[in-house]
Write a structure and sequence with these properties.
single chain, alpha/beta, 24 helices, six-stranded parallel beta sheet, 570 residues
Amino acid sequence: MTQMTGGELLLKCLKAEGVSTIFGLLDGSHNSFLTKLQAYDMRFVSARHEAAAAHMAEAWARIRGEPGVVIGGIGPGAANMVSGIATAYAEGSPVIAITGQRRRTIIDPDRGGAFQVLDLVDFYRPVTKFAAGLRDWRRLPELLRKAYRMATSGRPGPVYIEIPEDLLRGTGDDADAPIYAPDTYRVGRLGPGDPALLAKAAALLAGSKRPLLHAGSGVTWASAAPAFNALGEHLGAVMTTTLAARGVVPEDHPQYIHILNQDALAAARGEADVVLVVGARLGELDAWGKPPLWGQAEGATLIHVDADPASIGLNRPVDVGIVGDAQAALAALLVQVQAQTAPRPLHDGFAVYGRATAQLQAQLAQALRPGRQGINSGQMVKAVREFFSRDSIMVQDGGNTSLWCASYHPIYGPRSYLYTAKFGHLGTGLPYAIGAKLAAPERPVYLISGDGAIGFNIQELETARRHGAPIIVIVAVDEGWGMERSSQMMAQMPAFVETELSPGIRYDQIAAAFGCHGEMVTSLDGLQPALARAAAADRPTLIQVMVDPEINMAPPGLLEFGSLVYRATD
C-alpha cells in the first residue's frame, strides 16, 4: 500500500494505458502530477492555447491509431479547450480530455460567486461520447476505464473527465483504487461480424458485374487499407473514399476515382450493381448516398460494414448490414470472394471513367496559368507535393487553400493526411502538424495553410520550437480571406466586405521571432530551393509564398465541393 496524490494516481492510470505523451497547458492544479512525470517516464507538451493542445492530441491519435490525451485547467482553460474537443467529436477521433475543477465544497452545489467555476460536465457533454465528474478519489481508475472504453468502441470519439483540485492534490491509498490492464477490461477489436451475413455479402460481391467499394475513416482506424485494396483489386472494382479517408487508396491507383472527379463518380455510381461501404456513414459530403451525386445507385445492392451499429443504414437503407471490425471483415470477405471468383480485369466502364478523369486533368492543367500578382496556388501545391516523399505526412488548413490541395496534392497512403474533413475548423493545421511530428518523429511532416488560417494558432510555432518538432509550414499568402472573397463574388456583392487582411505582413519574420527558420518566396522557381533549406534545418520552418489573389479566388474544386453539400437531396 502506497500513499499518493490524485495527480500521481492519474499518471499511474494513464501509464497502464500505454500513454507516453500528454498535451495540455500548465495550470496550478496540475502540479501534483507534473512533479511525478519523470518517475513515470512521461512527457507533458504544454501548448500556448488549450484548443491547440486538444488539436495536437487528436493528431497524435490519428497518426498513431491510439487515443490522445489532453489536460486543461479549470474554468477559462477548460472553456478554451472545448473547440478542440468539438473538432475531435466531429472527426470521430478518440481523445481523452481531462480538466481540473474547483474544490468539491464549492461546486457541489454551486455556492454562487465562486471564482472560475463553470458547469464543465454539462459544457462538454454535447461534444463527447461520455462526460463525468470525479467525486471520489478511489473512483478515478474506474472513470478512466469507462472513458477509454467509450472513446475506442463503435465510432471513436472524445470523452471528458473533470477532476476537482482537492482530489488532484489530495492523497489516498493506491490499494483502494485498483488499476487494470487494458486487455482485462475492454475489447481490443471486434471480430469480422455475423458469418451468415459475411457469406451473403461475399456471394453478392463475387456475382457482381460492376462493383464499387467506398471507404470511410473507419477503414483507417482499423488499419484496414491493405485489405480494402486487395478486395477491390481482386474484383476489378471502382474504389472511392470519403474526404476524411483520403489515402486509404493511393490516389494514383488505376481503380481509384477522386472525390472531386464528379463526372467519373456519377458514372461509376450510376451503373454499380453492388456497392460495399466500409467505415463510412454516407453523410453530407457523400451526398447522403442519394441522387443526383450517386446517380441511380439507390437501385444497387448495398452492403455496409461498420464497427458502430448506429452508423449502418443511417442515411440510406442497406441490403446487408454487418457490424464488425473493418480489417477483420474485409479479410474474411476477401478469402470467400477469392474462393468464388478468379481475379477480374477492369470492366469496360473504366474507359468511360478514364475519359472523364482525363478531361478533369486537362481542366486542372489549364488552371495552372501563371499568376500576374503572385504565384498560382495550384503551382505552389504541385511543387510542394513533388518535393516530399510519398510517405510524408501532409496537413492542410484553410478555405480555398484546402481546395487547391484537394486538386493538386494526391495522397498516397493511410495516416498521411490530416484535415478537419467533417468540421472544417480553421486553425487546426499548425497544432495538427506538431502533434503529428511528435507522434511520428521519423516521418517528414508539412503543413499547407492560408494566411487567414495560420493566424488562428501561429503562436504554436514556439511550441514546435520548444519541443523539437521540425515541421515545415507553407503559408499561401493572398492577404485576405480567399474563400470569403469567392463567396461574396459568387453572391454578386457590389464590393468585398471585411475580406482583406493587412498588406505586407511578414509571417516568415514572425516565425523567425519565435526561433524558427523563416523564408519568403515570391517566384515559383524559388520554392523548391526554400523547401530544401527547410528540410535541412534543425528547427521548424515557415515559408511564406505570395500567391495571386485573383487566381486564388477560383480553385478548380470550388463548385465541385459546393455540389457535394448543396446538390444532394435533403
